[in-house]
């Protein structure tokens, strides 16, 4: 019997996933992406787990994330800010010791000015857009930088990076086009270490340059379209809060969008869209009880879900009985597929309302970051 919805986080599986990627991409280094509070699992705890496996390069998206993380990893790993710095954050970043990823000439100019203000060389990563049209210097700014390398005065570049748009499909022609463009740009930065691959890219049948940035694969999500090679990291279960039997034709939930086609046993569990369970899974998704699929019937409410448990043996139905939402019967990728989204979204939306059980039990869970 359980008394609250519980999110289980298997740190051994997280470590094993990192080792698999690390060994796969060697001699390239394997970096870990811990943005969005470690994909919702606690950036500091995830980072400490990765550092214990030899990870020395950690990536966040926002400077606020770097401020929360650096005190936990200072001296053991570098923290890179993928989105770069908004105006006015340069002095704080330099004092913190985080390393910005420079995505535009404007960001380069501001970071160079910070170097002059501090009277010292400051580190950075240079990102170029090779076809995704999101982050990184666009074509015209790349040409300006190549023509005027003194724009980088005071800046020590650690890596030249870009990002693959279609990495989860190794056969997509966009990957080869982006790689070719990346290598062409790299000729203008001789000797600078290169990083192109994200989780999906680490499984492409080629070399992996000098550094990869592993994200969803670390957390057990499938980095491609085939069988998932990663170990599952999270499990989610909730207790049955209430049971009822309804006659044929009875409606369930807001809007009465489900009507029982037979006498139906309904179980209500205390998880809803406020907990990150997608509202669109109403009348589409499912949970599992004792290995038996229990469809979600009616709409997902803010704090509850109703399940059709008519086919579940009665001995498994009682207040406090375990209901699996993510686990051996239903992976995070399956939940995402049912919701018409990706595992990243499911993972990062999981609520702080869940009890969190970090395993192995002896591994201390550090205070979770206070990243909004």
TrEMBL record:
Record-linked SMART domains: Ala_racemase_C
Name of the protein in question: Alanine racemase
Pathway of action: Amino-acid biosynthesis; D-alanine biosynthesis; D-alanine from L-alanine: step 1/1
E.C. number(s) listed in UniProt: 5.1.1.1
Alphabetized UniProt keyword annotations: Isomerase, Pyridoxal phosphate
Enzyme class of the recorded protein, top EC level: isomerase
One biological process term in Gene Ontology: D-alanine biosynthetic process
Reaction equation(s) it catalyzes: L-alanine = D-alanine
NCBIfam families given in the database record: alr (TIGR00492)
Domain Alanine racemase C-terminal: 233-359
Assigned protein family: Belongs to the alanine racemase family.
A cellular-component GO term for this protein: cytosol
Co-factor(s): pyridoxal 5'-phosphate
Gene Ontology molecular function: any one: alanine racemase activity
Domain of life, source organism: Bacteria
């Amino acid at each position: 019997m359980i008394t609250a919805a519980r999110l289980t986080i298997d740190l051994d599986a997280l470590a094993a996933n990192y080792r698999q990627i690390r060994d796969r991409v060697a001699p390239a280094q394997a970096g870990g992406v811990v943005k969005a509070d470690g994909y919702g699992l606690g950036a500091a705890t995830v980072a400490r787990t990765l550092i214990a496996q030899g990870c020395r390069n950690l990536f966040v998206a926002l400077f606020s994330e770097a401020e929360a993380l650096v005190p936990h990893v200072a001296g053991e790993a570098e923290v890179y800010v993928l989105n770069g710095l908004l105006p006015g954050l340069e002095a704080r970043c330099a004092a913190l010791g985080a390393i910005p990823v420079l995505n535009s000439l404007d960001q380069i100019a501001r970071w160079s000015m910070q170097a002059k203000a501090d009277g010292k060389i400051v580190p950075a990563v240079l990102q170029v857009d090779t076809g995704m049209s999101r982050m990184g210097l666009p074509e015209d700014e790349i040409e300006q930088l190549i023509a005027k390398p003194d724009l980088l005065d005071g800046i020590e570049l650690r890596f030249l990076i870009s990002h693959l748009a279609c990495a989860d499909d190794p056969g997509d022609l966009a990957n080869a086009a982006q790689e070719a463009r990346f290598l062409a740009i790299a000729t203008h930065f001789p000797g600078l270490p290169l990083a192109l691959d994200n989780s999906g890219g680490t499984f492409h049948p080629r070399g992996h340059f000098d550094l990869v940035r592993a994200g969803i694969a670390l957390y057990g999500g499938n980095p491609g379209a085939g069988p998932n090679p990663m170990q599952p990291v999270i499990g989610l279960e909730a207790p049955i809060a209430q049971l009822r039997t309804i006659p044929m034709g009875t409606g369930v939930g807001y809007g009465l969008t489900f009507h029982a086609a037979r006498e139906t046993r309904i179980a209500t569990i205390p998880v809803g869209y406020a907990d990150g369970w997608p509202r669109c899974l109403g009348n589409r998704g499912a949970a599992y009880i004792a290995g038996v699929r229990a469809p979600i019937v009616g709409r997902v409410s803010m704090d509850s879900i109703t399940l059709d448990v008519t086919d579940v043996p009665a001995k498994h139905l009682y207040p406090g009985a375990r209901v699996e939402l993510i686990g051996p019967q239903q992976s995070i990728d399956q939940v995402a597929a049912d919701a018409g989204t990706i595992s990243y979204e499911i993972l990062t939306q999981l609520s702080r309302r869940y009890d969190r059980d970090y395993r192995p039990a002896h591994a201390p869970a550090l205070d979770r970051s206070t990243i909004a």
